[in-house]
Amino acid sequence: MNKRETIDLIVRYLLLLIIPLGGLFILYKIFTPLTVYPVYFILKSIYNATLLEGNIIFFKGHYAEIIGACVAGAAYYLLLILNLTTPMHIKKRAKSILFLLISFLVINIIRIIVFGILFTKGYQYFDMAHEMTWYFGSTLIVILVWFSNVYLLKIRAVPIYTDMSNLAADTFSKKKRRNK
Question: Which of 58, 141, 168, 178 has its CA 20 to 30 A from that of 149?
Fold first, then answer.
């Protein structure tokens, strides 16, 4: 590893240590309105919805509160972890982060709207579908978004593994040079 790669590695992993200190709060602060308002505007155009206090949307005789689990801040954080543990050039990293966050946001908004529509239709399996999507669907969405990102941006590195193998290769090659 050259000096630039070493500094990049240190900065990326330091960010991973710093982000949890207030990062989830910040992610929710950013992505809650970015989730609530588009959902509200779309439901307003379909059902003449009203945005009430907080994140509560009233539409077609129903109240729906968009809570933290709906915003899925932890999923955004996981996508950031995957990005930051993968070595890549800064321009590709910026494109990757934008793609990851915007893609997940759009898919999440669509998911919430679909569930809002199903709820108003009295879909008999709503609770089961909602819970399954919450537990498993969000994981699948994160995986889909990450692998789409890898494919579209032609990312060849593997999160964590590539960094560790590069460090190991450098460590062992330096030891061999010293022993000679």
Answer: 168
Is residue 149 classed exposed, middle or buried when 0-12, 13-18 and 19+ CB atoms within 10 A define those classes?
A: buried
- Strands of the sheet containing 56-59, edge to edge, are 50-51, 56-59, 62-65
Q: Are 78 and 142 in contact (CB under 8 A)?
A: yes
Are residues 105 and 34 in contact, defined by beta-carbon separation less than 8 angstroms? yes
b/e map 97-123, b = 16+ CB within 10 Å: eebbbebbbebbbebbeebbbebbeee
Instruction: Summarize pLDDT for 87-127 with one digit per residue, the tens.
Output: 999 999 999 999 999 999 999 999 999 989 888 887 777 77
Domain ranges of the chain: 3-174
Largest CA distance in the chain: 79
H-type helices in the chain, by residue range?
3-47, 68-71, 73-84, 90-120, 126-132, 138-152, 161-179
Among candidates 126, 103, 118, 134, which has minimal Cα distance to 46?
A: 118
Q: What is the mean pLDDT of residues 148-156?
A: 98
Token reading at 170: 């450098």
Q: In which band, very low, low, confident or very high, does the pLDDT at 148 lie, cut at 50, 70 and 90?
A: very high
